[in-house]
Design brief:
Layout (H helix, E strand, L loop, with lengths): L4 H14 L17 H14 L6 H6 L3 H19 L4 H13 L4 H5 L1
Helix pairs in contact: 1-2, 1-4, 4-5
């Protein structure tokens, strides 16, 4: 697969919100019909999936699936590093599990 698990999930949420079968990960949210109301709905879904990683401004600042997925992944990485700052091997293991979709941000917060 050429898409990360986060890209796939974000694309799935976009498709759901925009009423599309699929979306191109490089297409801008607004050009697919996204507006402020849909952005608010998308934010709610993203926050369920990736708690405390995205705010409303991010919906417009990171306006493609690819950009948003990369942003979410970087925020998740920072959370992991902060939580496990002295455990380098454990961090690597956790990051690999996050990247593969084996665990989620929700799992880390528990």
């Amino acid at each position: 697969d050429e898409y990360s698990p986060i890209e796939k999930k974000v694309a799935s949420l976009w498709s759901e919100i925009l009423g599309l079968k699929e979306v191109n990960v490089y297409t801008i949210f607004n050009s697919l019909g996204g507006d402020s109301i849909l952005a608010t709905r998308l934010l709610r879904l993203l926050n369920k999936e990736y708690p405390d990683t995205v705010d409303i401004a991010d919906i417009f600042n990171f306006s493609t699936v690819n950009e948003r997925a990369n942003y979410i992944e970087s925020k998740m990485t920072k959370k992991v590093i902060k939580k496990y700052s002295n455990k380098e091997e454990e961090i690597s293991n956790i990051l690999n599990k996050l990247a593969s979709g084996e665990i989620s941000v929700k799992d880390l917060e528990e």
